[in-house]
Amino acid sequence: MKRLFFALWPELHIRQQCATLTGKLNSSGKPVTPANLHVTLLFLGRTSPEQQAAVTREASQIPASPTTLKFDHLSFWKKPAVLCLTASQFDQNLSKLHENLVNIAKQQGIAVEDRPFTPHVTLVKKAYSVIDIGFSPVIWHSDGFCLVESCAGANGIEYRIIERWTTTLPP
Ligand code: 2AM
């Protein structure tokens, strides 16, 4: 069974902005490699081929509306021990997308967390302190979403995009 999640995947310039910010943090912990930066929309976990086929089919019916996130805050979450970018603003399209994905997962008997959706980009894992620096917000325009597999690679976790759905509308 594959370990899957839905995510927003950044364009190169967003990846670069995030990586530059991570470099400035000079934080303890393990920086997320630039290729792995993303916003998790919904973590599915271990998913059977049948469940994967069903969620893929259903996700393709969701309108992949454009959405914009303004990542303007650096948050330290003690329990998962991560430093992440969080957004003071994101629009209804994203909340709706998350809600649709939760419904799709539940229809397939996939247990998902009931916590409120807090879009974030994890920058550093195994962090143990708050970092307070000024930075320019990362404005992330998204025109779609992905189904991603989390794999154990030779150099740690690797993410492989399995499906990508994009909007034809301008962001
Ligand atoms: P993150 O989004 O906070 O970085 C793949 O594992 C992605 O799904 C990671 O980016 C991870 O956290 C997110 N995720 C959410 N819930 C998870 C869970 N219960 N186990 C592993 N990863 C989870």
Automatic annotation (TrEMBL):
<dbReference type="Pfam" id="PF02834">
    <property type="entry name" value="LigT_PEase"/>
</dbReference>
<feature type="active site" description="Proton donor">
    <location>
        <position position="38"/>
    </location>
</feature>
<comment type="similarity">
    <text>Belongs to the 2H phosphoesterase superfamily. ThpR family.</text>
</comment>
<feature type="short sequence motif" description="HXTX 2">
    <location>
        <begin position="120"/>
        <end position="123"/>
    </location>
</feature>
<comment type="function">
    <text>Hydrolyzes RNA 2',3'-cyclic phosphodiester to an RNA 2'-phosphomonoester.</text>
</comment>
<dbReference type="InterPro" id="IPR009097">
    <property type="entry name" value="Cyclic_Pdiesterase"/>
</dbReference>
<feature type="domain" description="Phosphoesterase HXTX">
    <location>
        <begin position="14"/>
        <end position="80"/>
    </location>
</feature>
<feature type="short sequence motif" description="HXTX 1">
    <location>
        <begin position="38"/>
        <end position="41"/>
    </location>
</feature>
<protein>
    <recommendedName>
        <fullName>RNA 2',3'-cyclic phosphodiesterase</fullName>
        <ecNumber>3.1.4.58</ecNumber>
    </recommendedName>
</protein>
<feature type="active site" description="Proton acceptor">
    <location>
        <position position="120"/>
    </location>
</feature>
<dbReference type="InterPro" id="IPR014051">
    <property type="entry name" value="Phosphoesterase_HXTX"/>
</dbReference>
<dbReference type="InterPro" id="IPR004175">
    <property type="entry name" value="RNA_CPDase"/>
</dbReference>
<keyword id="KW-0378">Hydrolase</keyword>
